[in-house]
Amino acid sequence: MREDGRMMSVLPLFQILQFIVDLAYGINGYLHHQFCIWSVLYGLSMLTLFTNFYVKAYLSSKTRDKSNTRNGAGDLASGTLNGAKKSR
């Protein structure tokens, strides 16, 4: 089973969209249907935490990969580190 890099980076975006929709429902429920304020706070916390995860896992890794390639640090997945082959 092959891993498609584009799909793996799009799925978290869909999940962030899901948290935004959930937050909108929570706010609407709080304002118009007497929902508890905790539903809004829960939606905010989930959106904040997952967005933080997405930035650190996907966006910062892209810039880190580019800087490692420019500095010649190598690629751990291919088995090279600083230009030398890893021994097992």
Describe this structure in words.
The structure is a single chain. The chain has 88 residues and is mainly alpha-helical. It has one domain (5-70). Helices cover 72% and strands 5% of the residues. The chain has helices spanning 5-32, 37-71; strands at residues 80-81, 84-85. The protein has a two-stranded antiparallel ribbon. Strand 1 (80-81) and strand 2 form a beta hairpin. Helix 1 (5-32) runs antiparallel to helix 2. The protein is elongated, with a radius of gyration of 20 Å. The mean pLDDT is 80.
Q: Which class do the helix and strand fractions yield?
A: mainly alpha
The overall strand count is: 2
Termini separation: 26 Å
Largest sheet: 2 strands, antiparallel
Poorly predicted runs are none
Question: Mind sketching the topology for me?
Answer:
Layout: H1 5-32, H2 37-71, E1 80-81, E2 84-85
Antiparallel strand pairs: 1-2
Helix pairs in contact: 1-2
